[in-house]
Design brief:
106 residues, mainly alpha
Length: 106
Amino acid sequence: MRSGNEPVTARSPLRLRLGLGVWGLLWALAGTVAFAWAGRTGWAIACGVLLLVVAVDVAMIVRHMRQGPRYQPGRDIPPYEPYRPGGSGRPGRWRGGPPTGRKRLR
């Protein structure tokens, strides 16, 4: 069920991405070796380039995993408010919009 706060609470499935990245590394390596052995230089180069791209991706995934779920990029960026079940579903918001400093007349 959607709660309306998916972008705020979204998480990347890093373990799945790592597994798929390693799988891609194995296939790209196998393709590079197989095509080089068969004398297909163009295909071997293509698989080698793919191997490099996937290796960089896997390195970035491992870096993100080591940073942890609460990593903040710098002092200038405040930490996000974590999801609280039963709350409004939209952290940092008040019902009816943000306060304007004026009182409403009823």
